[in-house]
Description:
- The chain is mostly beta strands.
- It has four domains: about 70-345, no CATH class; about 360-445, Immunoglobulin-like, CATH 2.60.40; about 450-535, Immunoglobulin-like (Sandwich); about 540-620, Immunoglobulins (Immunoglobulin-like, Sandwich).
- The chain is about 10% helix and about 35% strand.
- The protein contains four helices and 41 strands.
- It is elongated.
Amino acid sequence: MTFERLRRPMISAGLLCAAIAAVGLATPSAAFELAPTPKGAAGHQGDKVKHPPRKGVASKYSTTAKGTGLLSYHGGTNGVGVTTGPPKVVLVFWGSQWGTKSVDAGTGISTFTNDPMGVAPLLQRFFKGLGTNNETWSGVMTELCEGVAYGATVCPANVPHVGYPTGGALAGVIYDGATAAPTTASDAQIAAVAVKAATTAGNTTPASNRNTQYVVLSSTGLHPGGFNAPLNWCAWHDWTNGGSVGPLAYTNLPYLTDVGYSCGANYVNGGTAGLVDGVTMVEGHEYAETITDQFPGGGWWDAAGYENSDKCAWVGAGGVGGSQNITLATGSFAVQGNFSNVTNGCAISAVPFNSNVTTVTFSATSGNQIGTVGTPVSTSVAASSSDATQAITYSATGLPVGLSIGSASGEIAGTPTVAVWNSPVVVKATDATGSSSTTSFTWTVNNVGGNTVVVAPLASRTSAKGKSLSLANSATDNQSLQNLSWSATGLPTGLSISGTTGAISGTPSAGGTFTVSVRATDLSSAYGFTSFTWYIASVSVTNPGAKTSTRNVSLSLQIVASDTAPSAIIKYAASNLPSGLTINVNTGLISGKPTSRQTKAVKVTATDNFGATATASFSWTIA
């Protein structure tokens, strides 16, 4: 693979001012340039640092990093070498092409109607999750520092190291969508969007931008900075001397899924989920390079000009330094490894530099608890930080009503007032840096005298034989979180009850009167029941047998039907009656005067108001 880092000429103040005007930002009184003037041919000082596209298939991880030798420090630019505070990321969605923005009230995640691959919520979750779940991917970057001599390859403990993003790196989401972004935006226009975003975010001083980077995201189908025209890179990071807001770092991030495989699709994960692998891999690459070479040229890179992420780009998947998934509090994300001077190779994980992060562990936990309503209880948990000077604060979820935890002591105490079965309790211990750990157990509070289960009563009912049905049951238990099991006796033939839901279903296969009892039993063996009468309607018709009658002589024939349901109402019908005869729908009486000689195969049908039906067939000769 060829890694090409192209040197660009310095952009003039006039060009940048025009770009700023194009994106709607007032031109500052003092002209400024996008990057320092290139200083000589060696290295990359003054360069825009590009992420190379992928070539070839994803191999298994190779221990061979790219470039030449270790990373070394290059003295800083404008007094800045690395991001020394907790890194902060502002995502800037540029151009009305993103569509309509909406914000989830529960998560605070912004989404856009023209974001077919979900890039916006993906990157927000990624940066929200960095520095959570005791993640150690960020730890590799904290090995690097500033405050050391030019050319140094080692960072002592007493100098400022790269900060750890405790509790998340996402500092804001900005939609710069009043107008459309250019189809092919210039570098100067992209830089101007970053400066405008800093003003929008309220970061209007150099100090407020010291540890902040701005990621300018373009919508699908665009070519910011010449992206994919042709495809020579996937993204790049740079810096701009932003006038009154001070120098700031920014990234040009195109809609990477437009080029699929070439910028990382399915590099780590297969299927649909892996189509966005490259989004977090490439942006994670630019983020890691920005915090270790904040204003490109003054931070850490090797003798061949490779930054920490460059040395480990597309080196394969898995292993100690290849691309793979990391798990954060906000989900699982594909990232690449970064070069570590400590191990002299690519690394996916390292213990964060201890001045930036601590670990919290529980030294005493509480097992599963059982108590009784109205009886006071007390139990304790204890935790400590790897930094013994850090105070621990405790919190808990799932405690039974009436109990609380001491935020400083870890003691759980009180008098439970409501019964609960196996309430899942999670206790969290957090130190002053935001590092935390949790322990879990269950807590049962029993009722005095046991539980009471009440099954909702059911009235007597009638259903039809041969018709499928379903009948729901419900019950209450005065101990919350209980599970009920259901049973029944006396059910009509063909019906059964679900042991988990209490629903009775099936198709009755026999008529009759049934006395049904439904019972619900909880995990403490407490139970309740209800009983009702269930009539299954079944109609039968008495066959009158073959009949012979005389033409033009009045006659009547009573059809007799019966029903097993006491409240049944039977209606009658007949087909193929001899000419001149009719049947009374309510009484079943066939009457009239036959008008012609004939023999008919007659069929009579009796149907009740529940849908049960029966028939009888016989021959009728008119002589």
